[in-house]
Amino acid sequence: MALTTTTYGYTKEHSGEARPVSADAAAADSGSLTFEIKHMDLFYGDHHALKDVSMDVRTHEITALIGPSGCGKSTFLKSLNRMNDLVENCRITGDIRFEGKDIFREVDLLALRTRVGMVFQQPTPFPKSIFENVAYGPRLQGISNKGQLSEIVEQSLRQAACWDEMKDRLNQSALGLSGGQQQRLCIARTLAARPSVILMDEPTSALDPISTQKIEDLALELKEKYTIIIVTHNMQQAKRISDKTAFFLLGELIEFDDTVKMFTDPSNPKTEEYITGRFG
Amino acid sequence: MLENYEKAMGELHDRMSVLSMKLEKAMEDTWYALENKDLALADKVYRGDQDINDLVRECMQKDLSISMLHDPVARDWRYLMATMKILSDMERIGDHCADICHYLIRMENRHHNLPLLPGLKEMYGVMSSMVSDVLTFYNNQEKTDVELMKDKDDIVDLAFDNLMEEISKQIAEHPEYARDYMSYVLIVKYVERMADHASNIADCIIYRDTSRIIV
């Protein structure tokens, strides 16, 4: 199935062809792009998991990826910092460009993973102190000066809105934090590596409503400095925080458009059926 | 969950159909009372406005509770938003039927037996067909004929201007009936406003169907 349009804002018709849908799309394209994905296919062995996906991710925006379980949204997310390289028999074709460069041929893998950080569904603090969790990335990057590390830790915790809660317990184990605090600590740890993009794979699905609210508020603050791509099963969350939404189904990108447009007037009947809960 | 949602949407749609029927009946009775100076019927329409208001309130509550409990999106959300706005316009149309009947009763209680204003019947007929059309478009989920509604609204506006001229002439010729003609001014104005509400409903239907906002 070939896509005929690439920037952002398209839907696949029943025929499988795509057409532009957003009137604002052309104007919006004048801004910078963090990712440009063109005709991307992903295979796990013989299984065709992502089919001819084309999408542009704009800088300093939050892009939400939605779709039923198994539709390929997490697979797509993980492709952006080559996490799928670790999966046996995984093969990707097509073009994925990060800040204009081919992530497979022109970007060093370590540099890519440094610039494109990731936050997972379950908080994954290391069994170390809060300080050491945040300082872990900078240490790997060769920073050993205590003063410099302290500065990075404080700045990262502040950016992740957890400095006030954690400043007096920096040497305590991160495992003693609540789930919500652990998740924000993981975001701080990601920020400490100085990324420009944060990938979030259902970051609030294991959290209570108040912790979820804090992460959402944080995401909205962080988009001033970072580009965020978030996988979520929570339609309300996608509506609340994202600028653009991409709907995946059975490995295909069905529709990609402004979030407001997508949730008030989707162009594709499949999108309408999914977001109204009539299937999936 | 989805079953409850569909059921609630179905119930709202059914109640909106009942409200539409009541409103069309009120408009039909209003004209009959006006044309035939049937004060008993006018009184019935006047008192019956409370039933319409109660039904409007019930539909608004249903609409709000679906919006709150089921977090609708896309076409459903536009339907609920449009319905909420349409309910306000329907309630006002019901009010205007009651208002017309109220002034008819006051006018007839002065026993001057004035003839029906020439052109009022045609004006009321066009307005009435506008309301009937938009309620049909709404209830049958049909697209609004925008141009037709605009043309009809223009006819009603023109009729309003002509009737104001006629009333001014009548007051000048028969100043002893000035109070009756003042009641006619209000009645004609209510008819013109009812056509405006029909136009508003058409705009809401366009939003429901296309997400285009018309102001």
Describe the global form of chain B: elongated
Share of residues in helices of chain B: over 70%
| Helix and strand sequence of chain A | EEHEEEHEEHEHHHHEHEHEEHH
Order of helices and strands of chain B: HHHHHH
User: What is the C-alpha radius of gyration of chain B, as a whole number of Å?
Assistant: 19 Å
Number of helices of chain A: 11
Helical content class of chain A? 25-40%
For this entry, what is the oligomeric state of its chains?
heterodimer
Query: How many strands of chain A?
Result: 12
User: Low-confidence segments of chain A, ≥5 residues, pLDDT <50?
Assistant: 1-30
Q: Low-confidence runs of chain B (pLDDT<50, min 5 residues)?
A: none
Whole-number mean pLDDT of chain B: 95
Major beta sheet summary of chain A: 8 strands, mixed
Please state roughly what percent of the residues of chain A sit in beta strands, choosing from under 5%, 5-15%, 15-25%, 25-35%, 35-45% or over 45%.
Answer: 25-35%
Strands across the major sheet of chain A, in which order? 2-1-12-11-5-10-9-8
Using brief descriptors, characterize the structure shown.
A: 280 residues; alpha/beta; eight-stranded mixed beta sheet; 26% strand; globular; B: 215 residues; mainly alpha; 0% strand; elongated
Overview of this structure, please?
- The complex is a heterodimer of chains A (280) and B (215).
- Chain A contains eleven helices and twelve strands.
- Chain A has helices at 25-28, 73-79, 109-115, 130-140, 146-159, 163-166, 179-192, 209-222, 235-241, 259-264, 269-275; strands at residues 10-12, 18-20, 33-44, 47-58, 62-66, 90-98, 101-102, 116-119, 197-201, 227-231, 244-249, 252-258.
- An eight-stranded mixed sheet of chain A has the order 2-1-12-11-5-10-9-8, with helices on both faces.
- In chain A, strand 9 (197-201), helix 8 and strand 10 (227-231) form a beta-alpha-beta unit.
- Residues 1-30 of chain A have low confidence and may be disordered.
- The longest helix of chain B has 35 residues, at 2-36.
- Chain B has helices at residues 2-36, 39-70, 74-108, 120-139, 146-173, 178-210.
- Chain B has six helices and no strands.
- With 215 residues, chain B is mainly α.
- The interface between A and B is medium-sized, with 13 and 13 residues.
